[in-house]
Amino acid sequence: MTLARAFPRIAPGLFLALGAMLAPPPTAAADRVDGLADAQSGPPLQVPDDKGRTVVLAAPARRAVTLAPHATELVYAAGAGDRLIATVRGSDFPPAARQLPVIGDGTQPDAERVVAVRPDLLIAWQPAAAEPLARVMDKLGVPVFYSDPLTLAAIPDAVERMGALFGTQAQARPAAEQLRARLAALTARYAGRRPVRVFVQAGLDPIYTLNDSSIVSDALRVCGGVNVFGQAPVVAPQVTLESVLAARPEAVLAGVGRPEDTPRNLAAWQALGLPAARAGHVYGIDADALYRPGPRLIDAAEAICADLDRLR
Question: Is residue 200 within 8 Å of residue 215, measured between CB atoms?
């Protein structure tokens, strides 16, 4: 939906919220951020985002809104969780994020609510979903930063960029270096291991998978796994049972919501006649950790590597 089409629905409340946003922020909100007021007189911050744009801030962000759960996790990892004032549904990690006000869904954020909280930075994921709100932010002079890490190596980089946006480099840099060290250890440990053919299950009824452009495939690569549908022409193709059987995967990797989902998934694939399932090689990883391009994906990669090594 374009801004022009959305505007009649949100206009009355939006103008009231605009007035609130442009008013001076409450003293309490300003006082909770230490040492940032003095940064106003310094040079502007210039931070590249994942869409090739350079985002410019007059000073470190103090009142940010995230439009994706992974972005929320990255901000907390960078030591800037106290600078978040709102987020979207599903931003539930770390636990402190559950206390943040919710301004709608990540695909349809509520412009009125966002404007009402007076952000000085918006952190989005996909431009298509954020476009109507981004236009409102542009009119208000609020920078929009797009976060979309596409590889495991990009995750520690993203943590450092969040540190630059919020002025928390002292916390962000060590956190990023720790993630890089864990990735380097994984890469070194599993280099040269026998490749394992893996079916990435993104849905079962109907059956969906992911191709090699997904960050999940990058985690597989680090572990010596080979995505059997890696060359599919779209990121998340629907596939048939016959094509999965023909691909001869040695293992199935699925994101699960609960631990008990993994044995149920194993039983389902056994009933469908998949040889890998009959051998017990159906693995479940916490779906939020697996599909969000945030720090917990490093945890997921470590678990995937261990599973594939047991199969070997």
Answer: no
- Return the HEC string of 58-90: CCCCCCEEECCHHHHHHHHHCCCHHHEEEECCC
Q: Which residues contact 153 (CB under 8 A, 6 or more apart)?
A: 180, 183
| Residue 118, Ramachandran bin (φ over 0: left; ψ between -120 and 50: alpha; else beta) | left
User: Of 144, 141, 123, whose CA–CA distance to 18 is shortest?
Assistant: 141
Q: Which residues make beta-bridge pairs with 199?
A: 252
Q: Domain map of the chain by residue range?
A: 3-176, 193-311
The answer to whether 300 and 293 are in contact (CB under 8 A) is: no
Radius of gyration of the chain from its Cα atoms, rounded to whole angstroms: 22
pLDDT in tens, 195-212: 999 999 999 999 999 999
Instruction: Kindly report, residue by residue over 141-165, the tens digit of the pLDDT.
Output: 999 999 999 999 999 999 999 999 9
- Residue 46: which H helix or E strand, with range? strand 45-48
Identify the sign of the CA torsion 156, 157, 158, 162: positive
Residue the block writes with tokens 């699960």: 256
User: Which CATH code fits 3-176?
Assistant: 3.40.50.1980
Strand partners, 286: 256
Same fold: 3-176 with 193-311: yes
Residue 47 CB partners (closer than 8 Å, separation 6+): 54, 55, 57, 145, 161, 164, 165
- 27 burial (CB, 10 Å; 0-12 / 13-18 / 19+) is exposed
Please give the model's pTM, rounded to 2 decimal places. Answer: 0.85
Element (H, E) at 215: helix 215-222
CATH T-level topology, domain 193-311: Rossmann fold (3.40.50)
